[in-house]
Amino acid sequence: MDIIKTKDLTFEYIRRDEDGNVEGITTAVDKVDLDIAKGSFVAILGHNGSGKSTLAKHINAILNPTEGTMWVDGMDTTDQDKIWDIRQTAGMVFQNPDNQIIGQVVEEDVGFGPENMGIPTREIWERVEESLRAVGMYEYRKYSPNKLSGGQKQRVSIAGVLAMHPKCIVLDEPTAMLDPSGRREVVRAVRALNQVEGVTIILITHYMEEIIYADRVFVMDSGKIAMEGTPREIFSQVERLKELRLDVPQVTLLAYELQKKGLRLPDGILTVEEFADALEKL
Ligand code: ADP
Ligand code: MG
After folding, report:
1. Using one digit for the tens of pLDDT, what is the confidence trace for 117-153?
2. Domain boundaries, the chain
């Protein structure tokens, strides 16, 4: 069963002048067909302006399609009666954790979502604890969020979404404002949610190294799905990735160049460890 499905999904931003005349149309999402299986970890890659955020906003019914359809757990996102079910099924985490954290204390912040859903107090505390543990932030429950690093704050915002017990979490460039160690923390937490809690993950990013653990990768370009495959299938198409203006990891590029020079390395090397192992086996 697909948790997220789209058919011919198209979205146009329409620019108008002061008199309301149409000045221009940007087709940000262009006839996209997607199927994302429940429980999977999917990455969506693409350079700036390729349509990733516009697509993501449809999952949460922040935007409605100009044409085509988006279903979340079988619910059409244009169905007004289902909007709260849809938003509870698919939670969103955005780029800047400072805009998502509102509580004065970490545990209070994580409790806001379930509280707004009308969950009984005792259960709220259970959910807060379980969510903070799942992202490795339980020891910080009494902290003030502004005392935390960027990576820790972002993990708290993920716990806040998790506390609403979504089936799916969509993260729109959650690591873009973080340093490399914060990025690793967040990716590790997201991966654990997928593997341990079975939450479907849709990770939007422009950092290729973050997609290594994904089951499936979609690469967007000009509002379309330009590539689709496993991380290894994607990483092995170095020239295509360059065309799509993605920064291919150094180790993948190096392995690719050595391969071109005749070294018999496997396709789509993803990590330094894998590269070292492959060299040893030559
Ligand atoms: P990404 O998240 O991959 O950077 P976006 O979905 O934000 O891409 O943008 C896709 C296209 O839509 C871009 O050309 C962008 O300029 C345009 N766009 C995004 N948001 C708006 C908006 N609010 N109004 C008009 N155009 C927009
Ligand atoms: Mg974006």
Report:
1. 999 999 999 999 999 999 999 999 999 999 999 999 9
2. 38-66+73-230
Q: Whose CA is nearest to atom 17 of ligand 1?
A: 28
Amino acid at residue number 254: L
Q: 244 C-alpha vs ligand 1 centroid, how far in Å?
A: 17
Distance 92 CA to ligand 1 centre (A): 18
Residue 74 amino acid letter:
G
Counting atoms of ligand 1 from 1, which one is nearest the CA of 48?
A: 4
**What confidence tens digit (pLDDT) does each residue in 177-194 have?**
888 888 898 999 999 999
Per-residue model confidence as pLDDT tens digits over 206-259: 888 899 999 999 999 999 999 999 999 999 999 999 999 998 889 999 999 999
pTM, 2 dp: 0.93
The answer as to CATH 3.40.50.300 being correct for domain 38-66+73-230 is yes
